[in-house]
Amino acid sequence: xxxxxxxxxxxxxxxxxxxxxxxxxxxxxxxxxxxxxxxxxxxxxxxxxxxxxxxxxxx
Length: 59
Description:
This protein has one domain (6-58). It is built from 2 helices and no strands. It has helices at residues 6-15, 18-58. The protein is rod-shaped and about 75 Å long.
């Protein structure tokens, strides 16, 4: 693609749907990251509750 003249490069970029695919994949990745972050936060909260419950029964 680097050997194409600028006009042919512009035409090639406009004719394919890569930008739309990148946009969709990016939104999926962001959504996946948000869900993963929420899962980690909930796991840490559950772990802290478990530790506090174990500490109370040990006393």
